[in-house]
Amino acid sequence: MQKNGCRTDRQAKQWKQKYAKQRRLYKEIKVNAPDILTSPNFNSTRGHIQHGNMTVNAHCMNVAKYSLAISDKLEKLGIHCKRNELIRGALLHDYFLYDWHDADHRQPHKLHGFYHPGIALKNASREYDLTPREQDIIRKHMWPLTVIPPTCREAWIVTTADKWCSLLETIRIHKGHGVHRYG
To answer: Is there a contact between 52 and 175 (Cβ–Cβ < 8 Å)?
Structure first.
């Protein structure tokens, strides 16, 4: 073991395991949603901030990864879900395609938290053939603001992962590398 600023063997092993897990999760996302990941509209979300300085794109990727991690834990308990729909719903849950921080007099974003799930669902439905489960994920991920709770476990998983990621981003534990906002 080395000290004085160098990683110990244990720390190096932990970092390798964490990196391998992230690669596995990303590969599963890539396999299940290549059309979303290469979509010009999805990639345009790299130019919009979600929380802190995290882009919408990075936020959706994080939510997809955390959703898969939660699903992995539930699988060990014998609780299964449709991972393909889980991934696709997680990636599209914030598919509102605008920067909600910008003032827009035609469409004020003060109530963004209440309205963006419907806007995201409308946008995603125009571009993709969504399953009922994917629709439920997108429409209800902001529960309890959406009033009607999710009706499938995949939507509950994404709702939970979204709340967790939002918290980490808002208090800047997860930091973005994208667009910087000033003012």
So the answer is: yes
**DSSP one-letter code for 21:** H
Buried b (16+ CB within 10 A) or exposed e, 140-169: bbbbeebeeebebbbbbbbbbbbebbbebb
pTM: 0.82
What are residue 97's phi and psi, to 5 degrees? 60, 35
pLDDT by residue for the chain (183 residues), tens only, comes to: 455 555 688 888 888 888 888 899 999 999 999 999 999 999 988 877 776 678 889 999 999 999 999 999 999 999 999 999 999 999 999 987 776 656 664 555 566 555 688 889 999 999 999 999 999 999 998 888 778 899 999 999 999 999 998 888 887 655 554 444 433
Q: Which of helix, strand or coil describes residue 175?
A: coil
Helix (H) or strand (E) holding 55: strand 54-55
Q: Are 46 and 59 in contact (CB under 8 A)?
A: no
- The letter for the amino acid at 24 is R
